[in-house]
Here is the input.
Amino acid sequence: MLAYLARRLLLAVITLWAITVVTFIILQLPPGDFVDAYVAQASAMGSAISAAEAAALRHAYGLDQSYLVQYMKWLNLIMHGQFGESFEYSRPVTEVIGDRLWLTILLSFAAIIVTWVLALPIGIYSAVRQYSTGDYVFTFIGFIGLAVPSFLLALIVMYLGLRLFNVNLGGLFSAQYQLAPWSWGKLLDLMKHLPVPMLILALPGIAQLVRIMRANLLDELRRPYVVTARARGLAEHRVILKYPVRAALNPFASTIGYLLPYTVSGSIIISVVLSLPTVGPLLLHSLISQDMLLGSTIILLLGFLTVIGTLLSDLLLMWIDPRIRAGQLR
Amino acid sequence: MSATALDAATPPLVTEAETRVAVATQRQLIWWRFRKHRLAVVSGIIVLVFYAVAAFADFIAYAEPFDTEASRSYIPPQPIHWFDAQGHFHPQVYALKGKRDLRTFKLSYAPDPSEPRDLALFAHGFRYRLFGLFPTDIHLLGVSNGRATDALFLFGTDQLGRDVFSRLVLATRTSLTIGLVGVTLSLVLGVLLGGISGLLGGWVDTIVQRIIEILRSIPTIPLWMGLAAAIPTSWSPEQVYFAITVIISLIGWTELARVVRGRFLALREEDFITAAVLAGASHMRIIFKHMVPSFLSHIIAAISLALPAMIISETTLSFLGLGLRPPAISWGVMLQDAQNLETLALAPWLLVAAVPVIIVILAFNFLGDGLRDAADPYG
Here is the structure.
């Protein structure tokens, strides 16, 4: 068990390092740097910046040094929790991101909870009542969740909301709370706005997990031990919940690790469509305007949180599956 | 009792159907199994139809997809009138009269029944090259009196007055081929790395497996957004197309590598492989004569399950403005026009590009499911 834990931790650390490298490379890829963009912007506004001034700016931001030096400097700062200053906003990156990161986490976390809470009973229901009307209904909803890209789902839901109920489903806050400091009213307002994006975000995951749960449980229900349990006169809910569901739960738990990156990715996209105040729209904007430190920090933080979340789900798996605890698997 | 009477009384040990199965080739078995999966067969036909549309896109489109015209901005879809004023079957469309509301300055259009245009099959339209080879101007649909671009608006027009139907047909070509090229690239990566991993085992296997694990535990969309944003704006549409294909194929290869490795590992232990080894067959012969035929079907199934993911990736990236850019047309590029609520309220028909996306993704999923079940016909 300790070996398994150590292996997981080591893998997480390597993954974190890989994320820093890939992030840094990606944000160095676009031709030209921030100073080029800044000069172009200034000349578009009518004020010229000389080559000497541009060079001085580059030097001030350390953009004239080699990539390795820039990377090491950046890594060193991150280690100390300093993510630097956004070029575009001239404010610390963490300040620009602000509440957005927590709202992203809240949204993703809520979506994952909803995924579990809905997928588990629906999966069990669909397997136990195979080929019933309910099973077909859920299978149909599942196919929608599978086939409709999340941005499209968000777009269609928003359109229907406008068309049928004449409400704008975008955003996470009402207008009067948008810039207000945190209060009970604001929290309540958030809770009112959360369900729609949360469900949109959760739907693909639910579709996938219901499919897995249904298939696994159907396999288990055909086993002889289920017949034995029934023959011994156990109550039906006990027969199903006590043994086959627990056995079917294992592959279910192991997909959780992939559910998290998937959900975080999805939150970026639907946030752009629904204009939610998460890091999504900010990331898109920073990538387009080549605000390197801001973009890289967002990608990095998302990656970090995902890796930590995955690690937690692995611990959960260990708790569920005694074979891993006993060190028999892997 | 004679021997013949006994023969007649007991049913034959092997029925005719069983004999048929016993002597059938693997191909036949796979086909029989696949045929039983009705939904997969229907999906396969739908996929073929879509690729046919992609191949004949210029022929099916009736209007030049880049032809902009301010006075045709945001025309709603116009119905075909199947019967003329006398009640005879005579498909026609009415010419449109545009009028600007002087209060809101919004252009509104009214069909003019006094000016019917007759629909015609194989009509003349804009010039193009069929399959990029044969210059022609014959199109599937057109109007016989007047120009199709002035009267025929099956799915309406967008802001720049371009015909949505014609653009949708050409977008089908881009979106479907980008999926195919992407899946080919990730197949090369997947077979190479998965094959090496499964064949060599040991530390090579461990490293490849860990790389896959790492790649799968990172949220990919932000990373692909970063990569796509790095594509220089000065690149030509063809270069962007290629770059996007490479980027999305980086998503697909891990799953394919997993499948290939799994098959390699499973097959290595099979009796018929051991038999081939004992019979003195060479490595190459074992791989290409014995292993590849038995996992080819699995690979094909994995491909048809990977394709929808590719199509979603391209559509998503293009929708965000980081993928293909105009003048290239893809489903994602078209959906980008429908990005905000104002446009949706004004021109909801722009969402029509969502329909082929959903149909194709569903069809590929069902087809893949059917193929996966059929890939192992002995199970």
